[in-house]
Specification:
334 residues, mainly alpha
Length: 334
């Protein structure tokens, strides 16, 4: 595309659109003209972005299209209907669509944690490199730090702290995925290493059942949320490498918006797991009852994703903004 020729051919249309947008009142004919010029300018912007990107011209047309779109569609305010739609359609559909990334992530991560736990639990030299014998006994003995950790603070404040930390980790996985997914792999490995150390040390002390009884009630849902965030972050990183039939800019915008929505949804999921960790895990309930609560929460989340999310995804919902709220674009590849 010869950018100078393109600008010369369409500058008058852009100037006319700008002039119409500055008017307080429009006649019927002028309103129709504004809509037509808005559609043409949106197409021009898409062509320039994909064929001959120019920062200054792109910025001007982006502002012009945004103003025109606001004038044509009017200002829209969020409502409780939007919240309900996000929780019943957008969020579960986004999680469902990402299942081919987060399910393998969950399987590989769980296997990694188990392997690390076996390695640490069966090699005394590795245990000795982690801490002194007295410190290891303080961690693993009955009433030790692994057990008292969950009851060392008031339940409400502990649940809030856990929720904040986990939500931050999930958000970092989603946001940092754009860096080819490398930071996501590091965050995921750190989580699996911490879990593997606990498994290894407690199994070497013959108290693995106690450890699992403490971790499983909240850990099933918590780790699932982390795996979903990590898998989505990895998918975002892959989008940078292979955007598919979309332009890289468009693909990142669409997947990035869906990832931000997932961060909000996963924060709600982690709120539930944090509440379980703060109130159920350290409670006096028998182990089987605490684990049953954790399994129930996990099954409910998976059913939510596969039933509501699957239905929404098959209906075309991607977790992105509604079509009417996205910028007008034209295809860039077949």
């Amino acid at each position: 595309m010869d950018l100078d020729v393109f600008v010369s051919a369409h500058r008058a249309e852009w100037d006319r659109l700008d002039a119409l947008l500055r008017r307080r009142r429009l006649t019927g004919a002028e309103a129709d003209e504004l809509v037509t010029l808005y559609q043409r300018t949106a197409t021009h912007l898409s062509l320039i972005q994909s064929s001959a990107p120019d920062p200054q011209l792109t910025g001007r047309l982006s502002r012009l299209v945004a103003r025109a779109r606001s004038t044509v569609t009017g200002t829209r305010r969020a409502s409780w209907h939007d919240v309900a739609r996000f929780l019943t359609l957008g969020f579960p559909a986004a999680v469902y669509r990402a299942r081919h990334w987060w399910i393998p992530t969950a399987l590989v991560s769980t296997a990694t944690a188990a392997l690390l736990g076996w390695w640490i639990g069966t090699h005394p030299g590795v245990q000795a490199s982690l801490a002194a014998p007295d410190e290891l006994r303080a961690l693993t003995r009955p009433g030790g730090q692994y057990e008292t950790y969950y009851s060392s603070h008031p339940a409400a404040s502990f649940a809030a702290q856990v929720w904040t930390n986990n939500a931050q980790a999930a958000a970092m996985c989603l946001v940092l995925g754009v860096f080819l997914g490398l930071p996501v792999l590091w965050i995921l490995f750190q989580n699996m290493l911490n879990l593997g150390v606990g498994i290894g040390l407690m199994s070497s002390a013959g108290r693995l059942d106690t450890f699992l009884g403490l971790v499983l009630p909240h850990g099933l849902l918590e780790l699932t949320a982390v795996f979903v965030a990590a898998g989505t972050g990895l998918r975002l990183g892959w989008t940078v490498i292979d955007p598919g039939p979309r332009s890289r800019r468009t693909a990142l915008a669409e997947e990035g918006r869906a990832a931000v929505g997932m961060a909000i949804g996963l924060a709600l999921v982690l709120f539930v797991s944090g509440a379980i960790e703060g109130f159920v895990t350290p409670s006096g309930l028998p182990t089987w009852a605490r684990i049953t609560i954790g399994i129930t929460a996990e099954v409910a989340f998976l059913a939510y994703v596969y039933i509501l999310g699957g239905r929404a995804a098959r209906a075309g919902d991607t977790g992105d903004l509604a079509a009417a709220e996205r910028s007008a674009m034209v295809p860039t590849a077949a």
